[in-house]
Amino acid sequence: MTEKRTAAFLLAFAIIFCLRPTAVQAESPVKAFQVSLFNPVQICKPETDIRGFRFNLLYGLNRNLSGIDIGIVNRLSANAGALQLGLANLTDGNLTGWQTGLVNVAKGNTSGLQTGFYNASGQTRGVQIGVLNTSKKISGFQLGLINHAESLSGVQIALFYNTTDSLKGLQIGLLNFSWNKKPNWFLPIINYQF
Questions:
Q1: Residues of the chain predicted below pLDDT 70
Q2: What is the pLDDT of residue 8?
Q3: Of residues 68, 30, 69, the one with CA closest to residue 50
Q4: How confident is the model at residue 24, as a pLDDT?
Q5: Closest by alpha carbon to 161, among 183, 134, 123, 184?
Q6: What HEC string does the chain produce?
Q7: What is the pTM of this model?
Q8: How many other CB atoms sit within 10 Å of the CB of residue 186?
Q9: Residue 50 in contact with residue 64, Cβ under 8 Å?
């Protein structure tokens, strides 16, 4: 029964969050399917937007993706409205959806979930779960061994170390640093500022 619930959740997630179209410029070709061994050995050119399914055996590169992305290294030069499953998920633009893998990087804004060993995002509205989580600005939740955010509005929970330059929320961990909180910029176990 658990497998059916998991499959139903993933399908609902893909329909609600991933299949929304991303902003597509008129000059960008759009395809529904992509298979890649490594760039440039792939069905569609890197400038192509994919709305549907992309499978990258080793390394795939496209512009925008709306849909599901599976492979070893999944890279997008623009935006993702996607469920990305791979060892490395790299998005140069914005991410709306879920990245799960060993390394997850969204250089722009993230609205959704990142789960993996290393998670990085420009501005995050959502959740990061991993060993090392980093975000320039996060409105949400970080759970890991080490968490870093330049600006935090939310919660950081770390087994070892939490750090932020600007705290509006709660830090729970062995070592908690909030560089804007004077005079208590360090507190063990629990640190907060509202």
A1: 1-27, 181-184
A2: 53
A3: 30
A4: 43
A5: 134
A6: CHHHHHHHHHHHHHHHHHCCCCCCCCCCCEEEEEEEEECCEECCCCCCEEEEEEEEEEEEEECCEEEEEEEEEEEECCCEEEEEEEEEEEECCCEEEEEEEEEEEEEEEEEEEEEEEEEEEEEEEEEEEEEEEEEEEEEEEEEEEEEEEEEEEEEEEEEEEEEEEEEEEEEEEEEEEECCCCCCCEEEEEEEEC
A7: 0.85
A8: 12
A9: yes
Q: What is the pLDDT of residues 32-77, one digit of tens each?
A: 999 999 999 999 999 999 999 999 999 999 999 999 999 999 999 9
> How far from chain centre, in Å, is Cα 179?
25
**Cα angle: 35, vertex 13, 159; to 5 degrees:** 100
Q: How many CB atoms within 10 Å of residue 11?
A: 10
> Quick one: tokens of 100?
């799960």
**CB–CB of 38/52 below 8 Å?**
no
